[in-house]
Amino acid sequence: MLDLAEELRHWTEEGREFAVATVVAVAGSAPRAPGAALAVDSAGTAIGSVSGGCVEGAVYDLCREALRTGESVLERFGYSDDDAFAVGLTCGGTIDVLVTPVTGEARVRTVLRSALSAAAQGEPAALARVARGPAELLGRALLVRPDGTAEGTLGGHPELDRVAAAEARVLLEAGRTGTVGLSASGARGESPRTESGGGAHCPGGLTLLVESNVPPPRMIVFGAVDFAVALARAGRFLGYRVTVCDARPVFATPDRFPDADEVVVDWPHRYLRRTATDARTVLCVLTHDAKFDVPLLKVALRMPVAFVGAMGSRRTHEDRNRRLRSEGLTERELSRLHSPIGLDLGARTPEETALSITAEIVAARRGGTGVPLTGGKTPIHHENGEAERPAVA
């Protein structure tokens, strides 16, 4: 639901009552990932989507019913081909949807308002909600900050909240949204036990949906060339915070790169050493000049980032690899380099080349093959590491 943070924050500020349906889990081919949401207010206004259209009508009705009853519900929607008019996913997948009313009940509403406010302002935080478990706990919410502090409760049991906050913080640090299982592992019906030996007080176990709100991932483009202008635009479209870096001040200007969030004049390898990166960061080397490429890639290929790609012909690639080997890089480190960067689309223009590059970035991030879907038999939607975390015993 955090993908609707800006709109829902306005609804809470206006005092509107609404219900929000959130995708909890996905199996097989399905159009929306966990965390996608549809919200409906008491006047019937709807925003968002959970399925791209397949089951929106049924989920809308569930939201209206939740507003009437004040109760949360978990519903599963799957594929149905027996009845052309049956409610189901025509793509063949299955989704679990949690519907939670946000009405006058202050306990949940207060936590959700804080979560929506944090997300709308770009503050990192994780919202954990009970997606499966005892009916009286369904929809309960806990907001977890990066420092481990938490707001709200999942059921009034401090140990349960502590374990849930710790698990939510793990997903927050990874910038991931997904589910976490808290299992009842004690013998003879005892309360679940944590590794520290304390009871987590969730008989039968719980499944939490954890939605992480983190700053957008970074795309750093090295080389203030025409291809970088188009790539900055494409990167911003994909939700990256784009930085363009070049040592030549005459080319690295904000006027040339209106779609970049920042333009830096510095030697690429020196800037990369001092700037903040993480496991989601994408590095695109378009300098196409050994005096820039080699020192930069020597640093980049030893950093725990998501993607490192470099532009150049196959001849340039071989020469660059030879130089990097002479600098001491191992074959394993060199295997991380996507070069020549991009998928084979037959691209010619800067815009087409930017599409080729971003297509490879998406494929690497999501586990795609880059081959046409026509005639294929592999899944259209890949798991991409967003699967449910195992239950905490």
Descriptive overview:
- The chain has 393 residues and is of the alpha/beta class.
- Helices cover 30% and strands 23% of the residues.
- The protein is built from 10 helices and 17 strands.
- It has a 6-stranded mixed β-sheet, with helices on both faces. A 6-stranded parallel β-sheet has the order 13-12-11-14-15-16, with helices on both faces.
- Helix 1 packs across helix 3 and helix 6 packs parallel to helix 7.
- The longest helix has 17 residues.
- The radius of gyration is 24 Å and the shape is elongated.
Task: Quickly describe the structure.
With 393 residues, the protein is α/β, with parallel strands linked by helices. It is built from 10 helices and 17 strands.
Which key phrases capture this entry?
6-stranded mixed beta sheet; disordered C terminus; single chain; 10 helices; alpha/beta; 393 residues; 6-stranded parallel beta sheet
Question: What is the 3D form?
Answer: elongated
Which range best describes the helical content: under 10%, 10-25%, 25-40%, 40-55%, 55-70% or over 70%?
25-40%
Count up the helices: 10
**Major sheet, described briefly?**
6 strands, mixed
Q: What value does the Rg take, in angstroms?
A: 24 Å
- Unreliably modeled segments: 81-89, 185-201, 384-393
Judged by helices, strands and strand pairing, the structural class is alpha/beta
- The fraction of residues assigned to DSSP E strands is 15-25%
Strands, count: 17
Distance between the termini: 28 Å
Pattern of helices and strands? HEEEHEEHEEEHEEEHEEHEHEHHEHE
Mean pLDDT: 85
Strand order of the largest sheet: 8-7-6-10-9-17
